[in-house]
Amino acid sequence: MGEKRFLTYDEQITFLEKEKGLIISNKEYAKKILLKIGYFPLINGYKEIFKEPINNQFQKGTSFEDIYELYDFDNDLRNIFIKYILLAERNIKSSLSYHFCKEYGDLQSDYLNVNNYDYTGKKKSVIDKMVKIMSGQLRYDSDYIYIRHYMTTYHYVPLWVLMNVLTIGQLSKIYASQKGRIQIPKEKGRYTYGKNDLYAQVIILKLLLSTEDFHKFFHDLKMCFKKHSIHKEILGKMGFPENWQRIGRIKNYIKSEIL
Q1: Which residues pair with 23 in a beta bridge?
Q2: For residues 17 and 39, what is the distance between their CA atoms, to the nearest angstrom?
């Protein structure tokens, strides 16, 4: 296979039209979008849904605007999920630190004590590493001003403060190591949707966000779908069942029920 050579915007447009069968009715508009986004992230990132599997051409009738609409939809959708995933992360940190401190205390000697975790079997090495990471954050010269403040003023950092510097990956290890694990309620039977797809994130956010925040997320999601009609073509590919809006009726378990 030959090397990919540099193509000007005009040459990229000609290639898409002549070689790939993409309809480009407004070349100046296409050049403007390619300048803003780039060929690779736009075309290579979103072409699969429009491709013919046999000849690697675009499906008949596919336009440049179709690809850009999918890009724009994905961008809006991503921003919505990032916003509310960050809210869920904050909720988890708050809830986990509250229940741990209530049960064992908030001193360093409490959350650095392996006996306050499910210190058994294969979890021992995970907990040892987790405690080492938390201990490593407790420095007088920390990059975080609030850590330096607590270390300098009180000579210790409460768990509910330390939680703010832990990543979601580190947080998941703390969660997995609890003696009283958070139990997500299960329904009878097995789900067809909501396992390893985007719809799974909707289900997770339903369980982790407050009722008010989930209503805002649900509203933003519906408005995004309303804005981008292309969602109808790919909803199933994202794992959404036809009756996906019924997620709004699922009971939103309060923290005391799932902890």
Answers
A1: 63
A2: 14
Closest CA to 173 of 132, 127, 242: 127
Q: What is the pLDDT of residues 114-144, one digit of tens each?
A: 999 999 998 999 999 999 999 999 999 999 9
CB atoms within 10 A of CB 157: 27
127 and 170 in contact (C-beta within 8 Å)? no
Burial profile 76-88: b = 16 or more Cβ within 10 angstroms, e = fewer: bbeeebeebbebb
* Rounded distance between C-alpha atoms, residue 218 and residue 245, angstroms: 9
Q: Tell which residue, 117, 113, 110, 167, has the closest CA to residue 137.
A: 167
pLDDT in tens, 13-57: 999 999 999 999 999 999 999 999 999 999 999 999 999 888 889
If one counts every other C-beta atom within 10 angstroms of the C-beta of residue 9, the result is 15
C-alpha separations of 222 from 35, 64, 215, 244 in Å:
30, 25, 11, 11
Spatial distance between the Cα atoms of 70 and 30, rounded to a whole number of angstroms:
15
Specify the 3-state DSSP secondary structure of 23. Answer: strand
Cα–Cα distance measured from residue 47 to residue 41, given in angstroms and rounded to the nearest whole number:
10
pTM exceeds 0.90, yes or no: no
Domain ranges of the chain: 9-62, 69-86+188-258, 105-176
Gap between the Cα atoms of 179 and 170, Å rounded:
17
